[in-house]
Design goal:
By secondary structure, the chain is an all-beta fold. The chain is built from no helices and 10 strands. The protein has strands at residues 3-7, 10-12, 18-25, 34-39, 46-51, 57-59, 67-72, 77-82, 91-97, 112-116. The strands form 2 sheets. The chain has a 6-stranded mixed sheet, with no helix packed on it. Strands 1-3-8-7 form a 4-stranded antiparallel sheet, with no helix packed on it. A hairpin with a 4-residue loop joins β7 and β8. The protein starts with a strand and ends with a strand. The model has no long low-confidence stretch (mean pLDDT 95).
Length: 118
């Protein structure tokens, strides 16, 4: 059974930075497309960023230029560096991997809460 565990969330002021981590337990991690999603209070979960096994990346328009997704295949981990944070980035952040159909699995971790507030 694949498991992911997110960490690194917290309270940060607008304009600040945080680095989220996701530790995954899966064989052949390097071959999986990994994603970060987030869910703000009262809103649906939304896609944030994707990183492929070859480390190419994609970002939602709302975070492009501010967030950076990366991975360490030797540690089976994926990261999200978040800079220039805004109050609207406040959400629970989740990592997951994509199935062959391009959708995330139904197995979500507990996530990590990011609160951007002064």
């Amino acid at each position: 059974q694949v498991q992911v565990e997110e960490s690194g969330g917290g309270l940060v002021q607008p304009g600040g930075s945080l680095r989220l981590s996701c530790a995954a337990s899966m064989p052949f991690f390097r071959h999986f497309r990994m994603v970060w999603y987030r869910q703000a209070p009262g809103k649906q979960r939304e896609w944030v960023a994707t990183i492929l096994g070859n480390k190419s990346t994609n970002y939602s328009d709302s975070v492009k230029g501010r967030f950076t997704i990366s991975r360490d295949n030797d540690k089976s981990s994926v990261y999200l560096q978040m800079d220039s944070l805004k109050p609207e980035d406040t959400a629970v952040y989740y990592c997951n991997f994509l199935k062959s159909n391009g959708l995330p699995t139904d197995d979500w971790g507990k996530g990590t809460l990011v609160t951007v507030s002064s």
